[in-house]
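hey can u check if this looks right to u? its 216 residues, i copy pasted from the old doc so theres a chance i mangled smth
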Amino acid sequence: MTLQQLKYVIEVATRGSMNEAAKRLFISQPSLSNAIRDLEQELRITIFERTNKGISLSKEGVEFLSYARQVVEQAELLENRYLNAKPSPQHFSVSTQHYAFAVNAFVRLVQQYGQDEYELALRETKTYEIIQDVKSLRSEIGILYLNEFNAKVINKLLKDAGLVFTSLFIAKPHIFISVKNPLAKQESVAIEQLQDYPYLSFDQGSTIPFIFPKKS
């Protein structure tokens, strides 16, 4: 086992793709795959589960990754202390559902801290993948929506992953309508009043909005 192999594992886990990691490491994908496979054989564990849809950390891999990060960080501290090397930027990643407020907050974060000391990343994805990202240390923070319909399932997933949910704020349902719409003159609108109008719905995790015609 070498320090370079540990760095390879961390990069693949961070990118979620063997191909993307190889590009970042400036090596060929076969060379990267072979290096990680040699490490798995040496340690007699499976670090990454390989399927037709891609790769993901195994249960053993999640544990191994936490140790690998510690070893690499300690090695970097030694290099920075004794070789006078320029400190490498700290990584900070956020996984979130498709929310404008999360993007705006992330932009302000980048503007405040810049990219000199930190390597910042924002990943928009599905609820389950957000939980997996934080569990596997791909992201430090995950932002998702919890309501009375999904709370039981999500809380179980969070508990199984050893994660904690902290509420940011309570969001109320709202609609977007034209100023020319008759409903715009009202202070509040009931759901029943929307039945005669078409509406646009975004299904979380989908990149295609669904347009619903008004009911006949």
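Strands lie at 48-51, 54-57, 90-96, 118-124, 141-143, 199-201, 210-212.
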